[in-house]
Every structure is written in C-alpha cells, then in structure tokens.
From TrEMBL:
EC assignment: 4.1.2.49
Residues recorded as bearing N6-(pyridoxal phosphate)lysine in the entry: K205
One annotated GO biological process: L-threonine catabolic process
Enzyme type, top EC level: lyase
Organism: uncultured Woeseiaceae bacterium
Keyword entries, A-Z: Lyase, Pyridoxal phosphate
Domain (Aromatic amino acid beta-eliminating lyase/threonine aldolase) ranges: 8-293
One GO cellular component, as annotated: cytosol
Lineage: Bacteria, Pseudomonadati, Pseudomonadota, Gammaproteobacteria, Woeseiales
Subunit organization: Homotetramer.
Cofactor(s) the protein requires to work: pyridoxal 5'-phosphate
Listed name of the protein: L-allo-threonine aldolase
Molecular-function GO term, any one: L-allo-threonine aldolase activity
Amino acid sequence: MSVEGLIDISSDTSTRPTKGMYDAMVRAKVGDEQKRADPTVNALCERVAEILGKEAAVFLPSGVMCNLIGILVQCDRGDVVLTDNTAHVLTMEGGAPAAIGGVMMHSLPGDRGIFSSADVEAAISTSPKKNVARTGLISIEQTSNRGGGSIWPLETIHEISQVAAKKGVPMHMDGARMMNASVASGVLPRDYAAEFDTTWIDLSKGLGCPVGAVFAGPGDLIEEAWRWKHRLGGAMRQAGVLAAAGLYALDNHVDRLAEDHDNARKLAAGLDNIPGVTSKWGVPDSNMVFLDVKDSKLSTAQWAEELLKQGVSIGIESDNELRAVTHLDVNSEGINIVLNTMSAICSSA
C-alpha cells in the first residue's frame, strides 16, 4: 500500500522515488537495452559490476528473476540448491527453481537465516552415483529477511566457501539487502561478493527505486543470463528510464541507509514501553524489526487493522509476529508516530 500520508513500514519495497530520482529518470538517455544499446542501462551494469567486483552484470526486472537466473545458469535439472530453511528463494518465490528449472531446494537449519560450514559439509553431495542428486549450488541471503535483517559474517562466508571449493560447488548470494549489510558492517559490497560466483543487488528496496535489480558474475555466466532473461520475458527495451533511478540511488541513497538502521533501533527500543510487545531479535542488525505480540491483548491481525486505521501499515509475519521495515520514506518522527500510535492502541485494548 502506498497512500499519501500513510506511514508504511510493511516493507522497504514501498519506497517511492524522490524528486531528484524522478528528475534523473526524466533526463535519461535511452535505447534498446535488449540490443545492449541503452547507454544508461549499460552504465548501470558497468557500475554495479565494479561495485561487486565482478566481470559483468545484467539489469533485470526483479530480485526473484535474479535468483532464478543465478540457479538456472549454474545448475542442471535434478540438481539441488542448499540454502537456509527461511531463505526467500525457498519460501517466497513460488517454487520457481523447481517449476522452471527442475531444480530442487534442500533447506539447512540456520540460526536467524545463517547456516554453518558444518551444515554444508553434512548436506553437500557430489556423489558419482547415478541415483543420487548432486548439489549444484549453495545460496545465501544477505541480509536474511526472516532472520530479522541479520548479517552474514565474512568469516562464516569464507568457511562455507572453502567447503564449496573443495567439493567443486559454486556459490550464489541473494544480495537483496547487501547494501544494508555493507553500510551496517562497514564491509565493502565487493568483499561480501568476492567468494560468490554470482550475486545481485536490489534497487527497489532500501535504495528507493521503483523497480529493478542487477545480477553480476563472470562474463560467460552473464552471457547465459541474457539468454534466460529473454526466455523469462525480462526484456525491457528503453529501460534507461529505470536504470537512471538506479544510478541516482547508488550516488545518493547508499550512505543514508544508516538512517534506516538508526530508525529500526529506535523502534525496537521504543517497544519496551508497550506492554506485551517486544523486539524478537533484540537490537536490529539493519533495517528490520520483528515484533513479538503474543503477550499483548491483540492478535497480529488486530494490530495490523488498528494501526492501519491510524495511518500505519505494518506487515504480518505469523500468528505472533509483525514485521516492520524502515526505509527512506519513514523518518525519525515517523517512528515516534508509530510508537505513540501503538501505545494508544494498547491502552485502549
């Protein structure tokens, strides 16, 4: 939902372009991006490839398509992808790897979306036996959505990478909120991406663009990604208008992600004053707060309904949990309003 005056903390996908971004979009030079003739799209792809330390990149309509293509260009039909049991690619992407690529997912029991090298070692299979499914890819999500915006440590990534290299299995990073992880931790995106064969960043979440993501990796895999982009209906033609938003965001909206993290911490701390409501994961790592409301007088559905009546949109994660995501459309005063509104609802319940 995106309504003027609404404080929407249901997702960082609810961001709207700023005036500066709109201006950049209007001025964009365009061409046919499918023929690689759109100069603004080309500039965005080159920029993201450089940021992530990869050979090449391709502009895609969505992060779901990025994950799917990352799997399709590295896995054969019947292969298995290892990922966390809460990972977006497993739980929220319509079973696309199986439906389109004939690829199976094997879930690992991570802690807040982060599994270990030991988990990988126990599950990975490169058996030559013809009746055993092979592990074709290891995928991690940075940050972990259902882990409350948790950040994968470089050390853990390196340990998993060593197992993958030993077994000859490639690695893919779902980098939907990698820029949040980078700003929060101080680790450069290229350092997070270094041990992954493929990765991507989302433009339509914290960076505030209306649509799009950029998938990056070795030149040969990106060439194959272009083929899958066309097969999946991802050709966008004069897409420089959208790519211009991405370039603007990379210039103007990365460092400010720290404000979103500050606001998430402010929200989590303020829950201490609302009876029966707590921050599930304590102090947020990035821009997500999962609200545990099981000890309050209202159900998650009732909380969401009452908040919406007062001009606040929040996400329902489960029977006991709400999800709040901070972003550039919600400032510190907006967080004050959210907390005051929740307090008033609690008092009248």
